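Anyone opening a protein record will find just a pair of labelled lines. A complete record is shown below as an example.
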Amino acid sequence: MEQRLILINLLVKLGVAAAVASALVRSVEFKSLLFREERSLKQKIYLVLWIGIPLALGVWIRFSATSFLAGDLSFETVILLGVVAGRLTGVLGAVLIGLPALLHGEWATMPFLALCGFLAGQLREMAPDREDIWSFSPFIDLSLYRMIRRNLPTPRIFDWQVMFFATIVALRFVHTELFRALPRATYSLESPNLWVEVAIYATSVMVVGTELKIWNSVRIQIKLEEQERLLLHARMEALQNQINPHFLFNTLNSVSSLVRFDPDTAREMIIKLANILRRLLNSGDAFVPLREELEFIDDYLDIEVVRFGRDKLQVVKELEPASLDVMVPSMLLQPLVENSLKHGLSSKIEGGSIYLRSRLADTKLIIEVEDDGVGMGAVNLLERPTGLGGTGIGMANVAERLKVLYGDTARMTIDSHEGKGTLVRLRLPVLQTEGAIPSALYEERSSTRR
C-alpha cells in the first residue's frame, strides 16, 4: 500500500474514533454504564454490546470494502474496554469484536485481542487512582514531566500513565510481529517506512487517548451538574427549614400561660406544635399535595387563633376541590400566612380575618392568601426578590424558592392597600403527580432527613 494512502487511513481512523465516541456518549443509558466504578455482569455485557457492536461492524466493513481500513478499531477498542471496565469486559469485547475476523479466517485475531483486553483490565486494577485512567493523555512527554516533578521530592519508579502508554506500544509491537509471522491469521496496518510506522504506533495511542478525552469531558460535565444539583439541594433545604423562632417562643409562652387556667387548650396547642415540628423534622419532600400543605397550615393557624383570641382572628377558606391534589413546594404557605399575621393583623386592635383560596385556571394553580389588616404596599417579589420592604425574610424565602423551582413559569404578586389589607397571589404550573416534578429541580424527593 502507498505510504500516502496509509497516512490518509490513519487520519480517517482518528476521525472515526472521535465520531464513534461522541455518538455513543450522547446516550443516557451508555453514560450510566460507562461512568460507574462497579458493574454487575449484566451491565458489563450491555457495555460490551454498546461499544462492541458498532466496532465489530467496522471490522466487517474492512472485509467488504478493502479500501476502507480505518473502520477497524478493534485493537484500540479492546484496550479501552479493559482499562475502563475491567478484565472480563475487555475479554468479552475481544470475543465480540474479533468474531468477524474469525469468520473470515483470521483465527489469531480473537486470542490476541483477548490478551490485550485482559492486560488492560489488569492495568486498571493497578491504578492507584482511577482518575489517572480518565486523565490519560497521548502526549507522553507531559506525563514524563509530571512524573519527574513528582519524583524529585520522593522518588517513585511506577507512574501509571507512563505504564499505560508503554503497554499500548508494547502490545502494538506484539501485534506487528504476529502479523509478520502469520500474515493471514491476523490483520495489522504496517509500513516498511520507519516514520510511517511511528505514525501507526502514535495513532493507536492517539485513538485511545482521544476517546478517553471525549468521554472524560462528558464525565466532568456530569460531575459538575451533580455538584450543582447538590448545591441546589442544600440551598433549598436551608430555605425550606427556616421557621421563625419568634413563633416557637410565642407558642411556648402561650402554652405556659394556658397551663394555669386552661390546661385542655394548652394540651391541644402542644399537640399542634408537635405536629408542626414533626412535619419539619421528618419530611424530606420538596413537593407535597396542596391538601397536605393546607393541613399543616391548619395546625399553624389553630395555634395562632389561640394566641390572638377566637374573637380577633377568623380563618376563611375558599378551596376548589380539584386544586387540592396539585403538587406544590413544601412549606410554601406558612411564611405567607405568618406575614399576614405579623405585618397585617398583629397591629390591628380589633383583629381581622385571613382568607385562603385556591383554584385552577387553565394550566395554572392560583393560590391566594389575603388579610384585611393594615396593608403594606404593592411589590412583585419574583421580579425584585431582594426588595423586601416590610415583608420580611419569609416572603423573600418564598419568592426565591419559586424562582429556583419554576423559573419564569411561576409568578408571585402582592396587592396591598394601606388600611384595607394585603392580597398575595401565587400562579404556579400544575403538577398533578410526583412524576411531573422536573427531575433537574428535585431528585431529592427520595431522600429523608433523619
